[in-house]
Amino acid sequence: MPLTSADFAAIGLTLQLATLTTVLLLLIGTPIAWWLARTRSWWKGPVSAVVTLPLVLPPTVIGFYLLVTMGPHGPIGQLTQSLGLGTLPFSFAGLVVGSIIYSMPFVVQPLQNAFAAIGERPLEVAATLRASPWDSFFTVVLPLAKPGFITAAVLGFAHTIGEFGVVLMIGGNIPGKTSVVSVQIFNHVEAMEYAQAHWLAGGMLLFSFLILLALHLKGRMQPVRV
Amino acid sequence: MLHPLRHILFTLGLSLSLIASVQAEQVQVAVAANFSAPIPAIAEGFEQATGHTLVAAYGATGQFYAQIKNGAPFEVFLAADDSTPARLESEGESVIGSRFTYAIGALALWSPQAGYVDAQGAVLKANQFQHLAIANPKTAPYGLAATQVLAKLGLSQAVAPKLVEGQNIAQTIQFVASGNAELGFVALSQVYKDGRLTNGSAWRVPAELHEPIRQDALILKKGQNNPAAKALLDYLRSEPAATVIRAYGYQL
């Protein structure tokens, strides 16, 4: 295998980024999805649109605005600097922030669908049995929404693994810190190192196929719960 | 169905445009990112002198290589180096004998902040900055030249933890222009116009601190029958083109 240590570092970094992003997104995305699934507020439309934006925006747009807003003259950059954190571009933390925004719809939408499918009834029943809202969320909603959580986690993880444009714009290609697999592939292609490009790109292709296949099989085998 | 009269007019218009296109051709050019600034002026002069038009795509040289090898419709290639065109030539992708050096690139250490970079580059030794942007030295000739400069100044070790890499020279200047990196090694042509610095502060890196950045042009196989491709390479060697190229800080 012609992969170099820089390639393996990129693979490790990518897995780390995708794992952390997925965990954080499940924590952030669950309340958003829950609210979106149940609210009748006027704000539902705008919030929904904002969450879905990364689906339609090119990553260059997200990357460009992140570079500008997280930079020393941007609002986020001024905030992080005043907190003593420095600026986010060219750092792993910056990539995590970018990935959270970039992969948000892939986590929120399956969760929202799962919550919406549960409906009011189970919660009403739980309430008549004197379950508190928190209690019924953890003992009724979470188990019922489990397939939604699995789909959300898998899609969020896979989508972050495949992230390219955002990292390219704000990463700075620092080995072990911001140099992820997709950028590494781009580097190999530009440097005309096609053997390494093939190993990494082929691996990515296989990985993505297997993930989607697993989701598909799981969806088919799982009996519909009533 | 078209109305008969309209049909006649349409056919007439089509044949007229075909006649016109016999004389005035269009040439598809792949242009290295560092040379994007002079191209509009060159395109204008070229069009006035020959009647042909130039359609430019900007990008990284290595990326263009991959695209050309895989059938991209480029007819002329203005690369950022001389090794990629030489390789294309040896692989039979170009018109033999068309390759020549159209510009020799100059490197600048630049910051958008006035007075930040001194005229001798001492700011590098002071090492007070957080991030120094360079183009990827593996894929971009200006990035390679930047690492040679750092090595020659004995600063490679000292600045290594502060380096951030742009994929090409266009992205490198973006890192600096947005303020995320305080300074960076860019192509002089990006911050230089009509013989002077457009904004910020810069150190024009002496040419002896790095290998010459010879930028070669050549006609690709797709352009071998296009008279505009040949005309463009001839025009690039002309005095009006040379004046533009020098005005952006390149040498010839």
TrEMBL record, chain A:
PROSITE patterns: ABC_TM1. GO terms for cellular component: plasma membrane. InterPro entries: MetI-like, MetI-like_sf, ModB_ABC. Residues 11-217 form the ABC transmembrane type-1 domain. GO terms for molecular function: molybdate ion transmembrane transporter activity. It is found in: Cell inner membrane; Cell membrane. Pfam families: BPD_transp_1 (PF00528). The chain crosses the membrane at residues 15-37, 49-68, 88-108, 149-174, 194-215. Keywords: Cell inner membrane, Cell membrane, Membrane, Molybdenum, Transmembrane, Transmembrane helix, Transport. It is a multi-pass membrane protein. It comes from the Bacteria. Belongs to the binding-protein-dependent transport system permease family. CysTW subfamily. Part of the binding-protein-dependent transport system for molybdenum; probably responsible for the translocation of the substrate across the membrane. This is Molybdenum transport system permease. The lineage of its organism: Bacteria, Pseudomonadati, Pseudomonadota, Gammaproteobacteria, Pseudomonadales. The gene is modB.
TrEMBL record, chain B:
SUPFAM superfamilies: Periplasmic binding protein-like II. GO terms for biological process: molybdate ion transport. Keywords: Metal-binding, Molybdenum, Signal, Tungsten. Residues 1-24 form the signal peptide. GO terms for molecular function: metal ion binding; molybdate ion binding; tungstate binding. Pfam families: SBP_bac_11. InterPro entries: AvModA-like_subst-bd, ModA, ModA/WtpA. Molybdate binds at residues 61, 169. The keyword Signal applies. The complex is composed of two ATP-binding proteins (ModC), two transmembrane proteins (ModB) and a solute-binding protein (ModA). PANTHER family: MOLYBDATE-BINDING PERIPLASMIC PROTEIN, TUNGSTATE_MOLYBDATE_CHROMATE-BINDING PROTEIN MODA. Belongs to the bacterial solute-binding protein ModA family. This is Molybdate ABC transporter substrate-binding protein. It comes from Aquipseudomonas campi. The gene is modA.
